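Key idea: predict the complex, not the pieces.
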Amino acid sequence: MSIRIGIYGYGNLGRGVESAICQNPDMTLAAVFTRRDPASVSLATADVPVVSASDVEKYVGKIDVMIICGGSATDLPIQTPYLAKYFPVIDSFDTHAKIPDHFSNVDAAAKEGKHTAMISVGWDPGMFSLSRFYASAILPDGEDYTFWGKGVSQGHSDAIRRIDGVLDAKQYTVPVQEALNAVRSGSAPKLTTRQKHTRECFVVAKPGADLKRIENEIKTMPNYFADYDTTVHFISMEELKRDHSEIPHGGFVIRTGRTGKNGDHRHVIEYSLKLDSNPEFTSSVLIAYARAVFRLQNEGNFGCKTVFDIPPVYLSSKPLSEIIKNLL
Amino acid sequence: MSIRIGIYGYGNLGRGVESAICQNPDMTLAAVFTRRDPASVSLATADVPVVSASDVEKYVGKIDVMIICGGSATDLPIQTPYLAKYFPVIDSFDTHAKIPDHFSNVDAAAKEGKHTAMISVGWDPGMFSLSRFYASAILPDGEDYTFWGKGVSQGHSDAIRRIDGVLDAKQYTVPVQEALNAVRSGSAPKLTTRQKHTRECFVVAKPGADLKRIENEIKTMPNYFADYDTTVHFISMEELKRDHSEIPHGGFVIRTGRTGKNGDHRHVIEYSLKLDSNPEFTSSVLIAYARAVFRLQNEGNFGCKTVFDIPPVYLSSKPLSEIIKNLL
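Result:
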């Protein structure tokens, strides 16, 4: 019996989930829900209904796990609590500071609807969170570092696009190699924001725009760029499309710590990702945890969960005995 | 209320556990059990009884989790099933090929005694197994690589010491940098044993011993060295003690995989460890999972468990809300 997956929102992430389902034979795509006109959406998978988001409640009983693929800023805070009343759900909510509030809202809705819900599943939050957690549980006397990149930050790219005179832009977050080396040495350095990452921007300006002003507006933008060493490259639309159309990302979670008498022995735990496609990798994590949501729902384990709650074995379609034999 | 830990076997690993307990304020060392004369064993911790292993059954009710620190070859296959009848237990059994048998034996004993038991907890098996598991669950279309080192292999060092004319020896397993680079590139290479690791041996020979013969016996030893490029250095006992008295280790778990249409997008997941002290790090993992054993025992969740069964949150002494706020 296949796990029937619903996709709610069909952007980059939704398409990634659709693609990931093909790699997991115990799952099928049951329906895609969209706020657009369903007739305007064509899927990569044959014979799957595209349904108006306003009709989603009609699908109760036809979806085992709803994967919610909206944005964290305005979509998920509304969508996940709403849908958790009707379906087992999972999302990739990634506004770190607002996770506790989102958790409470989703937990209440999921318990009311008697459903399992999972939030903040992806790579950060998600696999990076797990790596930080395991490493700090093992080495209580130590320090954590997270570096992101090299990769595209959608939020920073959007911020540049809002500047007057900018037609399009792509922003890469780049970890500073010297900072990474210092952390890996176990010397437990204190690093400022500027020392950890640089920001590299590729900008297409409108013909005749004041490039000096645009560059200055980017580099001095509070929160986004002012605290970083930022490089701005003006390029043509053709170059942007040719060289910067992919959405790679990745990063490093490092914990250094000490054990033994006087903390004489140092240890370095490092987890890193190098991803050609941020949304496709996030989707792959979502699909694995959707399997866990399905199982917890069947066990009657309702309410909001995070990656910290899930026994690893729940992610796999393989039997435990085979996992023990091949991977332990 | 503190978790009362028993240490069964007081070698490098037992001493590491003793040291790790000091870093975890919710735990206390209740007793150390030894097959030696207890009067001959002095602990680093004050006011803790050293007890003869033959008296262990008298400690039922006084130990919350017994951490079994024997060797995998002959000790643990006997000790863990025996002790699981009387106590919640955890071990670091690391003979990969025999794990399924050990699991069955411990599972039966633990269920008979109504105890939680965990086996094969450390870094490999242990954290490396978890890394292999998570990565393969997320990227079903991909390939796994595990590299060990640079680090001391106790088994290989022992094998050299058994050669006639050898006084002492230390063997380092070294991953081949070119192989690591090839794997990280995502090219999914097929690698032979020889291509993945080299072996470096530091040997103290008896005065007048035939060094050529010793070197040849090492390099041609089946299973241990014959399949590797092996380097042998003859050094003095002083040099061995000065430069090779530590027990460092580490390694790399890498999964490369593909997602998207035609598998166009490649991803690399890497987990690595660089450890100054193999036994102290293994002990630190054991202590974190001992907390999980304690909790599962209190829940009445009996039988044999592995790292795949344990919800991450069970490893930490911190409340879930704090973990979500700080690490998710």
